[in-house]
Protein: MOSC domain-containing protein
Organism: Streptomyces filamentosus
Amino acid sequence: MSDGTVTTVSSNGTYSFTKPNRASITLLAGLGVEGDVHAGVTVKHRSRVAQDPTLPNLRQVHLIHGELFDEVAAAGFEVAPGDLGENVTTRGLDLLALPTGALLHLGADAVVEVTGLRNPCAQIDDFCHGLLKQVVGRDERGEIVRKAGIMGVVLTGGEVRPGDPIRVELPAGPHRPLERV
């Protein structure tokens, strides 16, 4: 598995679909992105809170591969980093191929454990009509394919900036494919 690079970091202290780009973000162990509305020990995404607000927050950090923006641009959609609510935009790393439990070393100190796939929702079509079909579909076997990024929890905090390297540490043993979280 090749390593990648952080291209953009984003956060938002209020509920909004998009997140403004920042010069840096600070990851806090066990919580997520400092000052971000989705940071916390328990679930913060509105749909999850409505189901059970005591569940652990497995979606502290949202990462999207910048190559997705190239792909949707080829289909006529203009999407920029932060537009889909991600905290970290990457290049050169196949995020969707990572196994559950992979560790992403971001910059000098931060470590994020991959928990699963982002489950794209109808808000994507509210942002840009027709975009949902670009980021979720079916493969040749009829299986659902989710391409709107991955989610993780912060194991070790630290500052993350555009240009920071991402080093992947794969878990031992048989790898479990990512499932939606």
About this structure: The mean pLDDT is 95. The chain has four helices and 13 strands. The longest helix spans residues 67-74. Residues 3 and 167 are 5 Å apart (CA to CA).
